[in-house]
Amino acid sequence: MDARNYNNISALPSDGAIDLAALVASRPDSALAALLAAADLVLVINAAGRIDQVHVGSGDIDPAEVAGWEGDDWRATALPDSQGKIDALMNDAIAPRWREANHHGSGGELPMKWLTLPLPGNRRLAIARDQRVAASLQQRLVRAQQAMERDSMRLRQLETRHRLLFDTAAEPIFIIDAASRRVLEANAAARRATGLTAHALDGQNFAALVHPDDHDGTIAVLGALTASEQRHPARLRLAGGQSFAMSASLFRQDRDNRLLIRLTPLDLAAPAASEPLADAMERMPDAFVLTDDNFDIIAGNGAFLDLVGLARAADLVGQPISRYLGRPGIDLGVLTTALRDHGTVRGFATIVRSGAGDPASSDGEAVEVSAVSSGEIGQLRHGFSIRPASRDAAQAAGASLPMSQLTDLVGRVSLKDIVRESTDLIERLCIEAALNYTDDNRASAAEILGLSRQSLYSKLHRHGLGNLGDNDSSNDNNDSSGS
């Protein structure tokens, strides 16, 4: 912008004050007067670079924001990153140009766009436009662009995930045009089911992929799906003869209706190699139960259900095996410790309690347990084979096994639990010895043991020894006659 285009600028006084308002009023037809009238802020800068006059135009600048500028160094009013631009404005010669600079204002940062013109007396006329509105709009534009980029990134990520799900789905999926019935997209499973490539499927009429006998029915189903929502899947066969259950969903895209068709195979797969083994385990006469690494039950066969008195296998799942197997306190600890240490256990004598009984009770049916662990760390499974034990075998095992394992339990089971279990074992053995010695005469056995008859009956019940039902009266009669 050439200073010579401004009328009579050389006629301005070389010293003294310049009345900018009078200049605009006296020469309204001049370019300079028009520029001054349109400016938001006009400064007169002296040769030393200080502000001699401040003239606030009719814009959005509040005079209070620049009230302290008069007499200040113009360069000092600018922010540090804009002070170099002020120096350039002071050195603009005959061809000045607009430069942007940020200044200190009483209300905060004040962005301005400046043009300087030389005045007589080595002074300069600085004309500015307020850039706050433009800066605000620019910031809003930047924020909008950033938001659009974030939304675009999220859409790309979402599309990638959906594409991955679509392509890796095990079931055949087609997207077809609802009006023409032509295939728009098909996943890898659909290509395998039809035996066609992606190029061959593109644009193919979906009805042409269906077995001729199901052609009319498929067209009718697709028409019904387009007209109204249909929740129940229809059955169809593809041209190769494989049967599927077809379900479809109607959606709208690019102002056209689309159908997403999902096919679920109906053909029964060949029996897995493990099914005969599972069938044999279910039919075996011995009880079998499978647990996870925490010894929570995963499955049990029918014999185990009979043993614990439950009707449904679902009632077992998730229950700890200690709910049914082992005397409280020590038996199951011995078994699980040996199983973790050695991987297998054979002929472990313990008891099985009824599912309806008290989990803390020591009563139950005597059994022998063989167990094995399989799998890797984190995926271990424990299988337990359980069979009823004869009374003599149970007594022998009960007498020998816990005693042989007591020292192994030190450090794994508290001394209180070891002593309690040992005391129960010794008490049981002494009662059985007394009954054998007196030929099951309970009155005599109670006398030998130094117990009252009622106390003996209570201990017999707790240890599950003898029949405390109708035979009690006959035993009592025998006791009386014997006495």
TrEMBL record:
Q: Which residues form a coiled coil?
A: 127-161
Return the NCBIfam families for the record.
PpsR-CrtJ, sensory_box
Region (Disordered) residue spans: 464-483
- Keyword Coiled coil in the entry? The reply is yes
User: What PROSITE patterns does the record tag this protein with?
Assistant: PAS
- Please list the residue ranges annotated as the PAS domain: 158-229
- Which residues does UniProt assign to the signal peptide? none
> In Gene Ontology terms, what is a biological process of this protein?
regulation of DNA-templated transcription
UniProt organism field = Sandarakinorhabdus cyanobacteriorum
What UniProt keywords apply to this chain's record, in alphabetical order? Coiled coil
A Gene Ontology molecular function term for this protein is:
sequence-specific DNA binding
Bias (Low complexity) ranges: 468-483
Pfam families, per database record: HTH_8, PAS, PAS_8
What protein does this entry describe?
Answer: Transcriptional regulator PpsR
Answer yes or no on keyword Coiled coil. Answer: yes
